[in-house]
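quick q for whoever's on today - can somebody do inverse folding on this one?? i tried earlier but teh output was garbage lol. C-alpha cells:
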C-alpha cells in the first residue's frame, strides 16, 4: 500500500470496529482490500463465514453483485452492503430465470442444477445449487439421469467428464470472459518457460486448457493445492487476484500467471474509497424479495445437505 492507501485503510479499520462490521473480500479483489479484509475466500465461503459471526450485523461484501445476493440469502437478518452497485458479473446475467423455465418445459424429466454464479431470481428457479468445487459431487448424488446445468458451459463440460449422467448446458455457450482468455498456447508456453511448475486451472477455463492441466479446481481448491504441494512453482490460470493472495500469504513459493491480463474489471470496481463510503453510509444495500430469498435458500441448503458444507 502507498501512504494514502494506508491512511484510508486505518480509517476503514477504525470505522469497521466501531460498527462491528465484517469486511468480506473475494479472492479476486484488489490486494489493498485483501490486506484489511476480515476474511478472504470464494463467494459461498464468505457467506458461511458471515453466518458464523453472530455478532456482526453489517456485512461489507467486496465482490460482485450475485455474491452479495448470496450473502443476503444465507444471512437474512444482516445488512449486506456492496461497495460498488455496478459490480455485475457478466456470466451471471447470461442465464435469466425465464430460460430456466423454458428448459424445464423442454426437458421435463431433468433436474436443474445451477452454479452459484447466477442472480438470485435464477437461483430461485433451480432444484439445487453447486459451486465449482462441488459441482461433480452434487450432480452424481442425484437420482435423475438428465441434468440441466448452467450458466457456465465450461464447468458443465468439466462435470460431464466426471459423470455418466446427461448434462444439458443452459445457455449453450455461457462463459466467464476472464477464464475464456486462457488458451492452450498460453499453457504450453508456460510449461516450456517453467518446466518444473505445476499448472493449476479453473474449471471455467475452456476444455483445451483443462485437458493439459495438472490440477483443475475452484479458487479455494487451487489455493489449498498450491500450499500443500511439495512443488515450489505453479502456473495459475485464474483471475490475478488469487495470485496476489498467494504471493502475500505464502511468498516462499513462486506463482506465475498463465496470462497476466486475466483481470475481472467488475471485481476491480471495488476500491478502498468505496469501501470507506459503504461503511460510513451503509449503502448501497443489497436486498431481495422474500419469496425469491426463500426459494433460493432452499436450493443452496440442498447443496449443503449433499456436500456437508
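ok took a stab at it. sequence:
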Amino acid at each position: 500500500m502507498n501512504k494514502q492507501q494506508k491512511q484510508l485503510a486505518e480509517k476503514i479499520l477504525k470505522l469497521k470496529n466501531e460498527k462491528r462490521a465484517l469486511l468480506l473480500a473475494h479472492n479476486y479483489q484488489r490486494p489493498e482490500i485483501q490486506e484489511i479484509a476480515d476474511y478472504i475466500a470464494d463467494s459461498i465461503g464468505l457467506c458461511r463465514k458471515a453466518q458464523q459471526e453472530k455478532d456482526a450485523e453489517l456485512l461489507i461484501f467486496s465482490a460482485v453483485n450475485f455474491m452479495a445476493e448470496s450473502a443476503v440469502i444465507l444471512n437474512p437478518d444482516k445488512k449486506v452492503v456492496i461497495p460498488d452497485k455496478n459490480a455485475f458479473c457478466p456470466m451471471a446475467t447470461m442465464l435469466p430465470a425465464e430460460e430456466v423455465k423454458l428448459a424445464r418445459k423442454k426437458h421435463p424429466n431433468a433436474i436443474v442444477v445451477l452454479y452459484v454464479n447466477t442472480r438470485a431470481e435464477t437461483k430461485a428457479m433451480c432444484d439445487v445449487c453447486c459451486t465449482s468445487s462441488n459441482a461433480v459431487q452434487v450432480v452424481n448424488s442425484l437420482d435423475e439421469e438428465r441434468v440441466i446445468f448452467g450458466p457456465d458451459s465450461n464447468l458443465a463440460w468439466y462435470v460431464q467428464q466426471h459423470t455418466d449422467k446427461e448434462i444439458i448446458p443452459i445457455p449453450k455457450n455461457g462463459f466467464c470472459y476472464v477464464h475464456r482468455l486462457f488458451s492452450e498456447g498460453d499453457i504450453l508456453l508456460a510449461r516450456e518457460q517453467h518446466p518444473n511448475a505445476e499448472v493449476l486451472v479453473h474449471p471455467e477455463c475452456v476444455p483445451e486448457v483443462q485437458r493439459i492441466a495438472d490440477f483443475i479446481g475452484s479458487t479455494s481448491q487451487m489455493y489449498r493445492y498450491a500450499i500443500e504441494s511439495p512443488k515450489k512453482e505453479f502456473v495459475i490460470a485464474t483471475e490475478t487476484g488469487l495470485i496476489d493472495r498467494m504471493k502475500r500469504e505464502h511468498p516462499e513459493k513462486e506463482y506465475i500467471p498463465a496470462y497476466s491480463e486475466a483481470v475481472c474489471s467488475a471485481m476491480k470496481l471495488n476500491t478502498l474509497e468505496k469501501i470507506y463510503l459503504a461503511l460510513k453510509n451503509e449503502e448501497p444495500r443489497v436486498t431481495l424479495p422474500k419469496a425469491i430469498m426463500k426459494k433460493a435458500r432452499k436450493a443452496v441448503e440442498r447443496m449443503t445437505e449433499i456436500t456437508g458444507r
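fwiw The mean pLDDT is 96. also Residues 171 and 309 are 28 Å apart (CA to CA). so keep that in mind when u check it
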